[in-house]
Amino acid sequence: MSEIGKELDALSEKGQKWSEAQLHKEINSIVGEWENYVDTRVKRKGNGPRIEWKYKSRQISASECSLGKYLLLSTDESLSPNEVIKTYFEKDFVEKVFRTLKTFEEIVPVRHRLVQRVRAYIFVCVLAFRLLADLQYRLIKILSPNGAQEQVDDLLRELERVERVQVRLGHQVKIWYLNVTRKNIETLEKMGFHDLLKETTEVDFKI
User: Fold this and answer.
1) Dihedral, CA atoms, 145, 150, 155, 157, nearest 10 degrees?
2) Which terminus of the chain faces fewer neighbouring Cβ atoms within 10 Å, N or C?
3) How far does the chain reach from its first CA to its final CA, in angstroms?
């Protein structure tokens, strides 16, 4: 608002010889969406500033009273005010679940919507989210509840780089993992996955 006042003062001096139409056009571009809070008047050509303006104090005060406030309306009359607020803020969780189900599962859409195929599709999505929820729960226990979803995303992004290598020498099979950082190992161990990316050597007599 203060910047608008400065621009109007500058225009008042600069537009001494402008027509009223020019001044009104320039005033509209300066005030813009704040026109309900600034009162302006253009004077005829003569001595002194061409534009008189002032803030609409009553409108500004009314807006300040409602700033940051909103009304929650529930059609379920059995809910208490606290329950309505709790339910409202839970929508963030639901929206993030929906985003996860629509974004991270790299499966193609159901082409022929048979019942068993739709059920299988939903099962895979829900199972994937169940694994993500468990991962988030484990991270919250060892790190912080703040930004839990971001922590999960960061860990999964780092683990995407991990590659599994398997080499067979006769009946001996050796397995190890590439691109694993010390941070990854420490985080997984704190979560209880002590042997998840551990190098192993096995004996296989099938071949």
Assistant:
1) 170
2) C
3) 80
Which one-letter DSSP state was computed for residue 178?
Answer: E
**Residue appearing with tokens 């859409």:** 109
Q: Which helix (H) or strand (E) holds 5?
A: helix 2-14
The per-residue DSSP string of 80-132 comes to: -HHHHHHHHHTHHHHHHHHHHHHHT---PPPSS--HHHHHHHHHHHHHHHHHH
Contact 164, 175 (CB under 8 A): yes
Residue type, 90: E
| Number of neighbours of residue 15 by Cβ within 10 angstroms | 19
The model's pLDDT over 92-143, given as tens digits with 9 standing for 90+, comes to 777 777 777 766 667 777 777 888 988 888 888 888 888 888 888 888 888 7
- All structural domains of the chain with their residue ranges: 2-66, 81-156, 161-203
pTM comes to 0.45
